[in-house]
Amino acid sequence: MSAIPVIAIFDVGKTNKKLFLFDENYQIVFEKTARFLETVDEDGYPCENIESLRLSVFDSLSEVFRMNEFKVKAVNFSAYGASFIYVGEDGKPLTPLYNYLKSYPEELSEQFYAKYGGKDLVSVQTASPVLGSLNSGLQLYRLKYEQPEVFNKIKYALHLPQYMSYLLTGKACSDLTSIGCHTCLWDFEKNRYHEWTQHEGIALKLPSIQPANKVLPALFPGNNYKVGVGLHDSSAALIPYLVNFNEPFVLISTGTWCISLNPFNQLPLTKEELKDDCLSYLQYQGKPVKASRLFSGYEHEQQVKRIAAHFKTDVIKYRNVAFDPEIISYLKAKKQTVTQDANAKTSAFEKRDLSEYHNDIEAYHQLVLDLINLQVYATQLVLKGTPVKRIFVDGGFSKNSVFMHLLALAFPTIEVFSASMAQATAVGAALAIHKEWNRKPIPNDIIQLKYYSASQTISI
């Protein structure tokens, strides 16, 4: 029996590191998950263990190449953003992979923004809210001023997906999806690196930008496979939708964060939108995607624990709560003791007294109703001024009957679908270089949709 042609995708999250093999129909034929113990940087702050990650890439590929049933045609990478690795002349990292949650020195932040026109101006130009270490360009700026001797030794500053590609190819490159995610590096008005990167000598450390569909020859031994340049995970997750749907849509990608992405909104960000936690990403073809963020997945998890503790139930009960329209009618008619500020970042539910509810299911419906109020505000920020007729929801909340029905009720003039697809981010990274490894056309059934309307639910 001949070996199955496959692509290997490394999908690197903050917690889980996954390897998938996809066949030419984009079915997963092999997967492996690893977790690494964190290490610490020079300040004792937890950070990614680059050496464990590097060895894992080589070990996993060696394992896959030994499997006679598969023939690896290509390898690509998707990984979280705000993740620079600084490579010296010898090709080895000069510093730890600093954690984007590490606090940023206030004095240095003030110095940077004062020098380049103020927070509002820089944020609008770079489509990057002021986020400290989450603005990866400012990590480089910090290194220059706090560790100048290390900064001077940097040959290349590589975002994590591109570092992983570099491990297999020895070729350093940059990618627009990593540069264009709240890094403060890219001037969205001029469609080039922001001028501050030139003034600070940072542009010299950034290798040439390669398109997302570019592949490079591999140095690491194997069977004549090609290597992609890697993608930022949020942009990779959007690719299956852009490939499958031509009509304007918004994707609400739900997990710990709920991110509303509108690839059909190229309007420049305003100061007000930035203050509402909007930003712009660059998608894999280099076009801006307007996005808004909510920490709703995290809030849902915390508040479900509170409901379970109050009503003495198990949190598992709330994984599959059926939508009850009568409870919603009752809650909407009830005189509320807590009001919801539409543009708040957390819902009114955390202030609610749980003893006001008859039972836990009623309290749970109130929680989701409060989260939907925030979601509607956040999604409308990116809908404005665009002819969007469909909203797709993927991730955790797409399987939540209460969330999906309430979202459909909140957007009666837009078709609302829950979308399910095995590993959207990894599929996106495979689709980006489809022509380089796959002889077949892209299948049109990668994404399964379920339509929600105010009155009924239909599977497609």
Keywords:
460 residues, alpha+beta, Nucleotidyltransferase, domain 5, 2 domains, seven-stranded mixed β-sheet, globular
Q: How would you describe the overall organization of this protein?
A:
Keywords: DNA-binding, Kinase, Transferase. β2 (17-22) and β3 form a beta hairpin. The mean pLDDT is 93. The chain is 35% helix and 22% strand. The chain is globular. The strands form 5 sheets. It has an 8-stranded mixed β-sheet with strand order 16-17-15-14-18-19-20-21. Strands 1, 2, 3, 6, 11, 12 and 13 form a 7-stranded mixed β-sheet that branches. It has 2 domains: 4-229, ATPase, nucleotide binding domain (Nucleotidyltransferase, domain 5), CATH 3.30.420.40; 233-420, 2-Layer Sandwich (Nucleotidyltransferase, domain 5). It starts with a strand and ends with a strand. α9 (233-244) packs across α15. It has 460 residues and is α+β, with helices and mostly antiparallel strands. The chain contains 16 helices and 21 strands.
Supply the CATH superfamily name of the largest domain: ATPase, nucleotide binding domain
The residue-averaged pLDDT reads 93
Beta-strand portion reads 15-25%
Helix content: 25-40%
Secondary structure: number of strands: 21
InterPro entries: ATPase_NBD, FGGY_C_2, FGGY_N
Family: Belongs to the FGGY kinase family.
Organism: Mucilaginibacter rigui
Domain Carbohydrate kinase FGGY C-terminal: 247-436
